Each structure stands twice: as C-alpha cells, then as structure tokens.
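Problem 12. The chain below contains 120 residues. Write out its predicted structure in token notation.
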Amino acid sequence: MLGRKGVLRQPHGNREGFLNCLKQMYGRLKGYTLWLYVDRARWHRGEEVEIFLREHRRLRLRYLPCYQPGLNLQERIWRQVRYESTTNGWFENLEVIWETIQKTTHSWSPNKIKRLCKLT
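Solution.
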C-alpha cells in the first residue's frame, strides 16, 4: 500500500511484497524505463519474478554481487537511520520505532541523502 510521502509499506519482506512493490512503481512511473538494482535475496528472484519482468517490459532488474553491502545504498541509509533514531533508545512498541524512523528520515535534506549514497 502507498503510505505517506510515497513510502511503500509491505506487511512482509517476501516475494509477494516485492512483486506488489514493483507493481506500484510500474504503475506510478508510466512512460519511464525502470532500472532497479537489488540484492540477491530469495524474494528478488524466482519464476514469479521472471514472469513479472517478461510481462512488464519497462522494468529491468540487475542483481548486486554477493556479499557487497557497500554497493547497496539502502544499507548506508539504514546504518545512519539506526545511529540517529534507535541508538541508546527504548521504544514501547514497533509503531513508536516506525514513527521515530519516519521523523528522522523526513528531517534529512536531499543533500544529506545524496551524501549518504555517495552521489555528490
């Protein structure tokens, strides 16, 4: 489902959730060819994913090399989020953690995100 500010939240990190995310992006970004670089998690591969890619020609998946978290930009962002949001903190429940992470990431400037991803 599409959350606030364009965030796609899936109830589970599995193939069904990944395909649902791809469908959302594909539908929202009509007219664009989408190149996604993903890790080699099981849910990013398999027959269902291959079928989806054949049916959705504007979408291209490329897989990162094994054991290369430095190439996976979300790992850099997640490391910073954990440092700023959850280090030395106690949270009553998962919703409070989610709200804290949302507050942290929404406070970041575009330049900070580019810097974390080494895009500048």
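Discussion. Residues 1 and 9 are 6 Å apart (CA to CA). Students who got a different answer should revisit the alignment rule from Section 12.3.
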